[in-house]
Amino acid sequence: MHATCDKKYAKPAWAAADLYGRNFHVPTTLATDDEVGESLRAQQDIIDANYDRAAAVLDRDSSKVIDKRMRAYIAERFVYGKGMPDVHYDTVLFELLVYMALKKAQDTPTFRYLEKLSKEASDRRSESPPRAAVNVAV
What is the mean pLDDT of each run of 10 residues along the chain (138 residues)? Predict the structure, then answer.
């Protein structure tokens, strides 16, 4: 999944090799490592905020299908994803949606919000011109 997503994101040609696996668009007009780093940090902050909103939705989610074990697993995946949001965001969302579907948890506020996040990421991968990550409201 990482490699598939990576191919969809635009990156400056001069930095593409060093940005392999970074699942954010990086404006191709950027000319320095500092500019690229700032672009990545700004998007990471947005993705971290999306994860924080997802954690808040999970905390408020009283759906019976989300038991203590599932809740702990989902929360752990959010922490994992926040560790390297520019690498893991798309894949953590996909993994959680599959996991929750297998556990029959699609009709929950948590699943619906993760679905919104995943749709935003999917749309962003395929939009032209490329755009940066955005905050996704609950």
Answer: 74 91 92 96 97 98 98 98 93 97 98 97 90 95
Which of these, 104, 99, 46, lies nearest to 77 by C-alpha position? 99
The total domain count for the chain is 1
Q: How far apart are CA 86 and CA 48, in angstroms?
A: 10
How far is Cα 122 from Cα 98, in angstroms, rounded to an integer?
A: 15
Please indicate, yes or no, whether the overall pTM of this predicted structure exceeds 0.90. Answer: yes
**Can you tell me the distance from the alpha carbon of 44 to that of 46, in angstroms, rounded to the nearest whole number?**
5
C-beta of residue 114 within 8 angstroms of C-beta of residue 97: yes
Q: 135 in a domain, yes or no?
A: no
Domain limits for position 52: 2-126
Helix axes 68-83, 85-102, angle to 10 degrees: 160
R_g (Cα) of the chain, nearest Å: 16
Q: List, in order, residues 6 or more apart from 27 with CB less than 8 Å away.
A: 10, 12, 39, 130
